[in-house]
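Following up on my earlier thread - several people asked me to post the actual chain instead of describing it. Fair enough. Here it is, all 816 residues.
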Amino acid sequence: MKKILLLITCLLAWGGSFAQKKGNLSGKIVTETNEPLPYSLVKLVNVADTTKTTEVSANLDGLYQFQNVNEGQYLVRVKMVGYQAYSSQKFSFNGNDLQLPTVKMQSTSKQLKEVSVVGQKPFVERKADKTVLNVENNATAAGNSVLELLEKAPGVTIDRQTEQIKLNNKAGITVMVDGKTNYLSGADITTVLSNMTSDQVASIELITNPSSKYDAAGNAGIINIRLKRNKNFGTNGSAVLNTGWGGVKDGPNNLYRHSANLNLNHRTEQWNIFGNTTYNTRSSFNETLLARTANTPSMLTTFDQSFNRKQKSPGYSAKIGTDYYASKKTVLGIMVDFATIKNDMVGLSNANVNEYQGNTHTLSYIKQNNGNNSKLKNFTANFNIKHDLDKEDANITFDVDYAGYSMDRNDNFDARYLNTAQQETNSSNLRNIVDAKIDVIAAKTDFSWPFSKTLKFEAGLKSSFVNTNNDFISEQLSNGSWSDVLGRSNLFIYKENINAAYTNLSKNWKKWELQLGLRTEHTHSKGHSVTSNKIVDRNYVSLFPSIFLKQELSKNHSFNYSYSRRIDRPSYQQLNPFVQYLDPYTIDSGNPYLNAQFTDNFEFAYNFKEFSLSFNYADVRGMITQVSRQNDATRQIEVQRQNFGHANLYNANLFVPLKITKQWSMQTNLGANYQNYEDGTLVGAQFQKSKVSFNFNTSQSFIFSKTFRAELSFWYDSPRIRGVEETTIAQYALNLGIQKSLMENRLKLRLSVDDILNTNYWEGRMKYQNVDMYVTNHYVNRRASFSINYSFGNQQVKSARNRKTSLEDIKGRTGG
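Reply from S.P.:
Thanks for posting it. Predicted structure:
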């Protein structure tokens, strides 16, 4: 027994003599001026097996330490934003604690000073799957609202008649902010975008053919507004002041536009806290001229009408959020947004009514003063978790969101009826009171797993619950007291639940890239008109496949092929069966029987270096469009949204970026469109209309020095159609911007002028069945802005995560 114990002891001692010793490795990271460089990322690499690495971050004194390191050969690598990456020579470690030599990092700004020409991203940048507007640091963007920036984007038009944003002449845009869907649409979303300034925005992405990972809503695609982010650790921020004036043909000359923006970011090793606040105030003016003919067997009536509206819109928004890095693999985040916009509008309308009956001609007049004051509030909150799995690029995310919107609006209409001698024969006083509320709860989870470097699988689930309450009251003043107008007031409650699931599989070969996706959405909605006791209940399941294929012919030549199916659900206001008074001869009504529209999008693109030529075809069924109905007996026009039969939309785009000289670069986009619309029963009769249209957009960038640059841009849209509406004139505008940088680029001065030639206004016609009218619309088109942008603090601070939230799976649908 003693011999056995002695043998075991000897074996243990012998094994212990071969056991590896473990010790600590430490060092220090400093700048070129020997100042400590905190929070640098330090990586210890095992030379024998480079997959075995350990990472730590330097502390506030620039010190780092690796503990319990085995014997072996190693090298140290250091990374820090704003500095050149560092890699040490190979060294041997024997297990005894070792102090490594101090690492002195070299700033990248030192290298940049040797470059004679400072590069800048172009304002319009075309990528394989999207078009990007690089707003940040662009001179022509200064002082503009986001809505005005979109007007300069290739293929984007703002329909001032219906307050719709169109892409490639298609309506049905999903608007996102940092990947989070905004629920507003129609006039409400344009109001929000008008109050969001360029100072808040880094870039705007136009995604015309999204994959199944995105929510299926949005016939024309997605506009994603990415807000500014700062850059590893420390504190920084920026402050922007902007002032400017706007002009409109034959309009007032006191149309101001002022804003102030403050953006802050603070990050430590485990926490990132960020915030933003903006105040924006502006005034605007809009004039609409309407010429309409009502022809009946007994009488011919012509209407010459003008509507002038001057509006003041102060608005305030704020955001605060934090990310907590619980570990190297897990991040938790909370984000809260709040915004309030107040609108005060004063309007005046005049109508000349000419009645021809046989040889008799009678002229009468209607003069109406109307006012509007409203307050729009929205509040959103997001909780997010992201966890990286053990496999590289594999992760799972979870989001839960709440969004609350409220809108209070009061409209007043005071009309006077005058005879030929302009003597008052009658008068009316009407008012509308609107109280609308929307509550949304949504949740989503996404899973990503790469089987290999060339094969990746993605899947996700989303669910949302929407509850809207819209109380619309229409009253008339009679004998000194207000009473309800029969048939116009209405309480409308709408509830909707959308459940979605998707899978996405992507595979790369040597010359090919393939992505296959399938999204399934189950929709259950119920619209209840309480006043009239009408209920519209819908329950349906839809499939949305997507296919993306890229073929690389050579280094500079490639083809892209894609297909996706999309849906557009009616906005909540469009479904609300209220009847809203606009003037004695015009009313607007909702349609609770509106169905969703479906679109199949096909796209082919050829790419040569940065050049691209793309072709797009969209087959739209049940398109939601605005239709006017004329009552021949009353000669009143009723505006309503309804499902249009069928639309075939063809689009071709040529994108040409050119570098003329080292200081002069140019980007040009040329588009051609063909639209064909058909409906067998539009207002009781057949309708068919088609048209070819063109659009052109060019941007010139001039760099005169490291601190002084200018931008010159021009866009042009030819006459076009959409459904029953036809634009009869070409629209175009010339824009100029200049920028001067001071104090090592911390201070930027920008001056921009939009529509220098004062040419941008809208004119169109609607002629079908018994409707025949011409419309001219003048709005604030010429704008001059001056801004001061000052950046402070550590400008190498890494930003907050740019995460998407569960609000993606509902289209912005609260407007009209």
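The radius of gyration is 31 Å. That should answer part of your original question.
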